[in-house]
Amino acid sequence: MEETASGDNCQNLCEKANEDVISELHDDILCYMLSFLPTKRAVATSILSTRWRNLWKSVTILDIYDGISGYYKNPSTYKERKMNFVNFMDRLFIHRNNPSILKFRLSLAQSYDFTCVNAWMSHLSRWISSSAIMGNVEELIFFINFQVRLPENLYCCQKLVTLKLHGHIRFDNLQSVCFPSLKALHLEHLRMLNNIAIEVLLSGSPALEELELHMEGRDSRRSVDVCSLSLKRLIIGFVCIFVPYDHSYRKKLTIDTPNLEFLKLVDFASEELSMQRADSLLQADLCFGYQTGVFNVGIEEYANMVVQFYGQISGVKTLSLSNCNIRNLIGAAVSKFPCFGNLPTFRNLIHLEEEDAYDWNWCAPHSVPQCLSSCLQVIEFNDFEAVSGETEMVAYFLKNALVLKKMTITYLTDLKTSEVDVLKRLSTCPKGSDACQIVIIPEHEHSRGQATETY
Amino acid sequence: MSSSAENPTLTAEITKPSTEIATETAQSAKKITLKTSDDQIFEVEESVAMEFATVKSFFEDAPSSTDTVPLPNVPAKPFSQVIEFCKEQIKFKANPDETEKKRSNSEFVKEKTNEDLVEMIPVANYLEIKDLLDVLNQAVADRIQNRSVEYVRSFFGIDNDFTSEEEALLREEHAWAFEDVDED
Questions:
Q1: What's the structural domain count of chain B?
Q2: Partner of A426 at 20 to 30 A CA spacing, among A138, A148, A209, A366?
Q3: Do A37 and B103 touch (CB under 8 A)?
Q4: CB atoms within 10 A of CB A442
Q5: pLDDT value at position A287?
Q6: What PANTHER family does the entry give (chain B) (predicted)?
Q7: A431 falls within a domain
């Protein structure tokens, strides 16, 4: 819980016995208030007074998490707690007197008896049907750690805006999907998700604006097609490390999204990439990884394919690159691998961000990329390591970026003082843009800054 | 709180509108007079007062009214804090910045005592200020969510009218709901 200024005041409050202005409020307002609490705590308010006894039964936003841990510490308490949770769920499903739900989040980290789970799912199905009549389920979020099929009627919710699925949810019964209002779909680490299910989900969601797709381990080896006319934001994470590859096929990622504006792609698994119709793309945040001796594609071919991919997204205004895997790229491939040498491709670039700016054999492009002289305004280098090449690269940008407004460099905190001095001397380099402001900060301050920004 | 006779007018707008704002529109300087349940008079800039849906509809029904608007369910103390919130909010109307708005909202609730928060909820509800109601509800939820029943009762000022048998029964019935509570 957040540390607040309330500490001292609670003491006063406890002594003062505040006048009960809250209990005078209408049921609807109190239920709305309870909807901000996890369901567990909303149910606990039943004991406050008779006025509160049944309020939780009408709350339409449910947020359930089975936070039980410590089996190894004490198996008998664990069993008792699990039993308490099962009872809690059973009572919740039976006693709620308002069958319609607005938002429902269920996180089950433990596994449960099949009959139990089946009963919960059929209750849920009943709630969804009654909510469907009212047409008001807006958000469904499931984190489920054991194999389960969600009720079929869940895949047909008229007003559903957000759907997030995570874990071992099965899709083998997925015939058709009808989500006319769905805006955000997150499919995260779903062991049973295949390309057919993705296609069914996307084709049933004509208003979808955001797709987040994460696959890891063996699952990330499946080929994926993302094809949507409405999609504006796409976030993909394929992490596949130390998994033996099947050499009979190549994993392929195809993106066909003519209205996409934002793309974040962290991909250590795809051996073939294809981006079609990226005319609307404004911002790309990319991190590719080639796995030597694992991929069924040679490094040269892979590098060429990535260069081609950059060509397809060359209209972006903001580009963020993370070449954490560049050390694995050797020889000729390094110069081909999209990095600063390929900047000429990006004709509209305004904002460039580079994570782990380490560039093995930096050599200045033959001619100054057009975006440097005409549009690049902001450059951010993260994780500066003060190795040779990096300093030259920064100096090159300072000299040649004619409309640059701000260059921010974050350096690793384990950097020696002398290395930081090298970095600080950069601010005296010749600048192509007089207006350019140079900001040099240690990494931890940068991340703290970001933390305050995101909150 | 001093009596209304000693301090008949609490001027909510302490800062005088600067020249830039004043030239924007003639309306921005217009003030609305509001009277709280404890007979305090508040003069509030129209743009702020229009954040209160209840007040807004009062003027929609009687557009030319220059009368003082009575707020029979609103005491002065929470009302002045509600005004403080709405003054911040209207800045984000002209210049939407979600991150900054969140920061400003969390700053607002952080400085408030439990009593302040609890007293503002009925006011925000009566004046139909949805953003504020959400901010307050979230703040209250954050402060009570892992607390004991006794703590939550005193937080809201609720009198327990259960017998100890009834209470024990409820505790048994919803055992899970009462687990993992922090020490007071």
A1: 1
A2: A366
A3: no
A4: 14
A5: 84
A6: SKP1
A7: yes
